[in-house]
Specification:
CATH class of the largest domain in chain B: Alpha Beta
Strand content of chain B: 15-25%
Shape of chain A: elongated
Order of helices and strands of chain B: HEEEHEEHEHEHEHEHEHHEEEE
CATH architecture of the largest domain in chain B: 3-Layer(aba) Sandwich
Number of strands of chain A: 0
Number of domains of chain B: 3
Shape of chain B: rod-shaped
Strand content of chain A: under 5%
Number of helices of chain B: 9
Oligomer: heterodimer
Order of helices and strands of chain A: HHH
Largest interface: A-B, 27 and 24 residues
Number of strands of chain B: 14
Distance between the termini of chain A: 50 Å
Distance between the termini of chain B: 202 Å
Structural class of chain A: mainly alpha
Strand order of the largest sheet of chain B: 1-2-3-5-4
Helix content of chain B: 40-55%
Radius of gyration of chain B: 66 Å
Radius of gyration of chain A: 17 Å
Largest sheet of chain A: none
Number of helices of chain A: 3
Structural class of chain B: alpha/beta
Largest sheet of chain B: 5 strands, mixed, barrel
Chain lengths: 73, 380
């Protein structure tokens, strides 16, 4: 299931959802392959989004550091 | 013609006054008797002269007369025309001095309350003295450089002739623009100072329009002119000092003000320096405060950067962990590895007891489901 893009930009909620998914797998006694597959697909999407978002945040962070550092010298 | 010749025979004679009579015109006729040989000489003093010298001729009085002989043409009588008369002998002089002093005192001529203050900061000074001698030099050497405008009239200051000069000088100064009149001469005996005990002169001084300072040296009997003057000093130097006084006092005052002003300015400058130092310290403190703020800012920034880095790394780790967990839990991966899931009546078969021989079961593999029947069960 592909989530709404703006929703998936929120790292916190992504991490929460991923945690829920892994917990789902851990607690699954009767494995529902179809459902498991859906969860995997969702998790993969969330991971990809999260990585992208992380990269963006890192870049932004580096930019901020660059902005501040010349003033500090 | 003879009289012209006689007029040049000027003489001074000393003698005792015999008979003395004033004529209807006011001229005084008297005789002078020689002490030694009792010889006599007829003398005349004209009214104007007689009034000038203040000597009231009386029988027995010892006087000195200056003048010349003259013959009266109608009678051919020889007389001595006295141009000046003055008392001779210390005793007579003292007597005349005391009498006049007493008289003027009674009139209040010497009264303190009549005396006028010497103006402060006088500039226009009239001086009557003899230009010969040390007196004027002493005066001029001691008068300060305060812009004095000194007008001097040279006058005889000794002998009865001096009276005329002194009176004429005072008359001139009456018409001159001056602020104070100074009459000075050196010290001398009562006799030599007699012009300064002249009644007319004393009255002129006491009635002079501006204050008069007398600087007439004397031993014990202060000249009457000095007593009548508004101020009296015993030397010309002292007179100069008196005139300098107000200027010098002001000069001292100005110097004191100058010192005060400089002192106050110095205090102001000191205060400014103090304020400047305080300002410098304040600025330095402010600079330190800024530096501290900067350091603290940088510190908190570093901490924030570091904290954020840790946070990012934690998030990253979580994502990686989730990725791993998903990878491991991916059912497709299990199926791809050759594992399959067997179900009987919809339930996952985990043990041999979950199925019976003859029951149907579905086996889920990577690409589909295999339906099969249980034929045999072998327990291990």
């Amino acid at each position: 299931m592909v989530k709404d893009k703006s929703d998936s930009k929120n790292l916190n909620s992504n991490l929460k959802k991923l945690s829920e998914i892994t917990e789902w797998f851990d607690n699954q006694e009767e494995i529902d392959v179809e459902e498991g597959l859906k969860k995997v697909k969702e998790a993969v999407f969330l991971i990809k989004e999260s990585k992208g978002r992380l990269k963006e945040i890192e870049n932004e962070f580096e930019e901020i550091k660059k902005e501040i550092e010349p003033e500090e010298e | 013609m003879l009289n012209i010749g006689l007029k040049s025979s000027k003489a001074k004679i000393v003698g005792e006054v015999g008979e003395a009579k004033a004529g209807p015109t006011g001229h005084v006729y008297f005789t002078l008797k020689d002490e030694k040989d009792q010889s006599m000489m007829s003398c005349i003093i004209w009214k104007s002269r007689y009034q000038l010298y203040g000597v009231k001729l009386q029988e027995g009085m010892k006087i000195m007369a200056s003048g010349y002989p003259e013959i009266y043409p109608p009678s051919g009588r020889l007389s001595f025309i006295a141009e000046t008369i003055e008392l001779a002998g210390e005793g007579e002089l003292k007597k005349q001095y005391d009498e006049l002093k007493k008289k003027l005192e009674k009139e209040g001529v010497f009264a303190e309350e009549r005396k006028r203050p010497i103006p402060r900061y006088p500039q226009k000074i009239g001086v009557i003295t003899s230009k010969q001698g040390a007196v004027i030099a002493d005066f001029l050497n001691n008068i300060g450089k305060f812009g004095f405008k000194i007008k001097m009239i040279d006058s005889r200051v000794e002998g009865q002739e001096a009276v005329r000069d002194l009176l004429a000088s005072i008359k001139t100064f009456r018409k001159t623009d001056i602020e104070v009149l100074v009459i000075i001469r050196g010290g001398g005996s009562l006799e030599s100072l007699m012009p300064f005990n002249n009644e007319l002169l004393v009255r002129e001084v006491s009635g002079f329009p501006v204050p008069v300072i007398a600087g007439i040296g004397h031993d014990k009997d202060e000249p009457l002119v000095a007593l009548a003057a508004d101020a009296s000093e015993s030397t010309p130097t002292a007179v100069a000092n008196l005139l300098n006084e107000s200027w010098e006092q002001t000069l001292l005052l100005l110097e004191r003000y100058e010192r005060d002003i400089i002192g106050r300015y110095e205090t102001i400058f000191d205060n400014y320096k103090e304020i400047e130092n305080e300002l410098r310290i304040s600025l330095s403190n402010f600079k330190n405060a800024l530096l501290n703020a900067k350091i603290s800012l940088r510190d908190s920034l570093n901490k924030s950067f570091f904290g954020f880095g840790i946070l990012l790394s934690k998030v990253n780790q979580k994502v990686v962990q989730a990725e791993k967990a998903i990878f491991l839990n991916n059912p497709e991966r299990q199926l791809r590895l050759g594992y399959s899931i067997a179900r009987c009546n919809g339930k996952i078969i985990r043990k041999t007891g979950d199925v019976k021989i003859g029951e149907n079961m579905d086996v889920r593999v990577l690409d589909g489901v295999i339906s099969s029947e249980v034929k045999n069960i072998k327990k291990q």
